[in-house]
Amino acid sequence: MSLYDKFVENKRLRRFVLLLFVVVVFYLLRSMMSMFLLTFTFTFLSVQLVRTVQKKFPRTKPAWVIAPVYLIIIGLLIFVIANYIPQLINQTAKMFSSLQKFYESKEVRSNPYLDVIYNYLQQINLDNQIKVAITQVVNYITSVGAVGFNIVISFLLSFFYTSQVEQMNAFGRQFLDSKYSWLFSDLFYYGKKFVNTFGVVLEAQLMIAVVNTALTTITLLFMGMPGIIALSAMVFILSLIPVAGVIISLIPLSFVAYSVGGIRYVIYIVIMIVVIHLIETYFLNPQFMSSMTHLPIFFTFVVLIVSEELLGTWGLIIGIPIFVFFLDILGVHSIGGHKPKKIRIKLKKTL
């Protein structure tokens, strides 16, 4: 038996080598990571929608479902860009301006408790940091063209795939009968694991973010907070970060609340965040993620810190799904929720 045949027969070794090769390829193509992830996210959600409709109406073709949905999404995007993006920019600028005025006001300097915070902020040169943050925001806005291009391409690719999902699946199955069927069967194995872990976790976190944003927006409306659109957009983006996102959103919301209604509004914001965190922990997570591993908070924060260092901003969103994917590959915990069997060691009694 040749070395190649021995390698093919050793399923564990060849799958490890293939996984390592795939990781290296994605690392080399990391500049296209946004397009890959956006395409996968759009495609996964679209296919899930098609499958849901086909369960009730089996003869429905994917194109009949996905074409109207994508047309509606495009129409909504045009409406939002034309009507609400200018408001979002204006509200964000006003929010920064009001915070800076409040920071420099006499109320802050006359309050003994706030004076301590003021002196500390003076030491860390908050004014300069705010200017740097605004400069970064402007830089992000100027790079909207590149981001928009990735979104448009990902949107089109997901539409073409979903509208012909049956043909794509049939075409992909042909590789399983090719001369290198072992290679494509292993890729299929990893692809199935990837969809069952990464896709489910990402979809669940998206639903959690929507619910968190809706609850936060309703509370902010009752409190009469300014810049609702900007604050809601910020909360939605931060809610995509598992566990930590809700806590991180407390800081800017507290600053805005204090500038509007003083310490009483800050207490309201803290109560709101605590309630939303409890709802996410005890209702949303079990409801949307009942089929996956629940990581301890310690591991969650460690994974977020490491993934942000390795992948940047995307790491905060996809770090947990990737970690769960590797847990599934290692057999630590299956996406189906089956716990690994306990290993019982029997000790023989020595006479």
TrEMBL record:
Keywords: Membrane, Transmembrane, Transmembrane helix. One of its GO terms (biological process) is transmembrane transport. Its main location: membrane. It is a multi-pass membrane protein. The chain crosses the membrane at residues 16-45, 65-85, 137-161, 204-223, 235-259, 265-284, 313-336. One of its GO terms (cellular component) is membrane. It is found in: Membrane. Belongs to the autoinducer-2 exporter (AI-2E) (TC 2.A.86) family. This is Permease. It comes from Companilactobacillus heilongjiangensis.
